[in-house]
């Protein structure tokens, strides 16, 4: 899959950072990690466009609005967009209780919605999400516990960042359930996307 940057780049590995906003950690009653909590999503979970298809196996799919970074040559951040890390929370809770991997909860088909990538600028980004006109998430990446460069270095030291990797940098507070038929508006700064869940 190629992205709309000045030089199309195929997506490689999808790194997801969990628990990177303190307020989000508190709302889920989790502990603050000593280092970034990282998990992966398969490339097959990526979707674009205006439709979110919720999985039949979950009764509690949550939205998590996130800044997404695209890595180019020489391990540089070259582009950004907004993304939704969809989470089957009921499935994830069972996995946590049993000490099992989160793949079914985080990596199902359509679990990684992405907006359009644009050239990256080193600044703070504003993220927001409304569902049926109600504001659910509205926050700034300024509240992230980790800087963009720190995340790149951390992932590179452990796993070896490569061209085409993307980093979902974590979600601010306000995550919640999506129902079939919901109308979502996802924003990053002045960019706006209208989506519908089915």
Automatic annotation (TrEMBL):
Q: Which InterPro entries match?
A: Fumarylacetoacetase-like_C, Fumarylacetoacetase_C_sf
Where does the Fumarylacetoacetase-like C-terminal domain start and stop, copy by copy?
Answer: 13-189
- Pfam family membership, one: FAA_hydrolase
* Keyword list, A-Z: Metal-binding
**What's this protein's name?**
Fumarylacetoacetase-like C-terminal domain-containing protein
Which species is this record about?
A: Moraxella equi
